[in-house]
Design goal:
The complex is a heterodimer.
Chain A: E1 5-7, E2 10-13, E3 19-24, E4 31-38, E5 42-50, E6 53-57, E7 64-68, E8 74-78, E9 87-94, E10 102-103, E11 107-111
Chain B: E1 3-7, E2 10-14, E3 19-26, E4 32-38, E5 44-50, E6 56-58, E7 64-68, E8 73-78, E9 87-94, E10 102-103, E11 107-112
Parallel strand pairs in B: 2-11
Antiparallel strand pairs in B: 1-3, 3-8, 4-5, 4-9, 6-7, 7-8, 9-10, 9-11
The chains are: A mainly beta, B mainly beta.
Chain lengths: 112, 113
Amino acid sequence: KAGVTQTPRYLIKTRGQQVTLSCSPISGHRSVSWYQQTPGQGLQFLFEYFSETQRNKGNFPGRFSGRQFSNSRSEMNVSTLELGDSALYLCASNLNPGATQYFGPGTRLLVL
Amino acid sequence: AQSVTQLGSHVSVSEGALVLLRCNYSSSVPPYLFWYVQYPNQGLQLLLKYTSAATLVKGINGFEAEFKKSETSFHLTKPSAHMSDAAEYFCAVSEPPSNDMRFGAGTRLTVKP
């Protein structure tokens, strides 16, 4: 069974731009979560989706948003990028909320 | 809210020596606990998980961890380190049914030949 896939793997943007990251979960998994990983703050929970609904959100500004489609694929969007948004963004999928999460390889975003 | 503390940001062992990575957790409800490993430029790979069944949990690559409620600990061990074990290790806690997993700061394991 294929794992979690994330596209693109690397991205360079400039301040003020917006970006959309994509995540395809493991086949059959209906729940998707996003995490941000930075050297300073470590791994932080962004939000989780199940059945196209956001169930939970971490402590991030409204510039960070996401959505989930009927096929369970998910996207996250960051608007008005700031230098501090440079990070590795990890997507994880699980069968249902609360089940073990399996991570994708991440998208590395660099904001210049 | 749940949280995790990993003691030691960097651990160095010799090949063949015991690996011990420490993790203490805080949770208001019976938690689920996890150890993940991250190799450079990769995502997180699940090593093992505790979900309120057996307190001694065996994972992949010879790793195991013991859940000790009285000590609020979930330390990761491996009897004999291998060069390929060099990576960053993260302990994490969640309170199901939420997906909100709280991670420790990570421990970088170095294995010396």
